[in-house]
Amino acid sequence: MTQHVSLNEAASAPPGVPDIVRLDGVVRRFGRTAALDGISLRVRQGEILGIIGRSGAGKSTLIRCLNGLERPDAGRVEIEGRDITHLSEGEFQPLRRRVGMIFQHFNLLSAKTVRDNVALPLKIAGEGRQARNARVDELLDLVGLTEKAASFPAQLSGGQKQRVGIARALAAQPALLLSDEATSALDPETTRSILALLRDINRRLGLSIVLITHEMEVVRAIADRVAVIEAGRIVEEGPVWRIFARPEQALTRTLLGPVRPQLPEALAQALGPVPGRFVVVRADVVGGEASRLLPEMQAALGRPVEFIHGGLEAIQGHTVGTLFLRVAVSGEPEVAIVRSILEGKGARVEVLGYV
Length: 355
Prior knowledge:
Shape: elongated
Number of helices: 12
Structural class: alpha/beta
Distance between the termini: 31 Å
Order of helices and strands: EEEHEEHEHHHEHEHEEHHHEHEEHE
Number of strands: 14
Largest sheet: 6 strands, mixed
């Protein structure tokens, strides 16, 4: 029997896991434009949260509210249980050290060595030289740049520069690491290595990470949970596997388009709207026995079901996938039967057309 998975399950944290960040009804306006329009969000200790959306959706304003560079016009922003909304700059300064930041374009000081770039936050915080050097050695080892300590940024590759940026962001031992499009300027191979490093840091240090990105591949690679933002509002949120398996919003489906199977153009152009001999359907499936969907469907229909495109993959330990199927039918009543059988197996079904 096919395993059904509830897609409405609450994305709640295990008991006892605290929130590092809490946003409640956050509003930030620029003139009459609401860049953030009532955002409520949680970031739990030790999780990686991906925040995705189109350009101008509010991602950058949100991250600036988290690091204190923007203050909300309404609502609350809490870091480790403390409301930062109305803190003075002097009151917020110690708390800002609990929030590390890595940037798309690295933001390294070109006249300083790798060692000095990483040490800068510690020097500003008044750390002594011995403690500072010990911490820098530890961080350079963590990011794999011990041999580059005396190099200058101009002597580094893009990936190495980003590793320096990560080490610098970790210098003050933050509770939260913010990543603002940190891989979008890197080639795919370097991106994979940086994401692997961030996941390793997350697991080894128990560090919470918020990834601001427009790249769904980044979210799929390392995030635990994802929030989709549009026009300053969170329009969809949940575990990564669930959002990839069953995106509810049209925007989410659009953003996922490049990383989810699509019917090849030649096959799509051959489809017509008028019922014909075959119906072509898209079935989004979830569950450990999704691979048994075709034989079970054929048995229920008593006829062949042709798999024409798509496939299955494992995300966060869940089998999810998209199957494009062609089934012989004699009319719309049989199309309804095909849909009913698939939905009865837990699939989400879309009739794409007929041939």
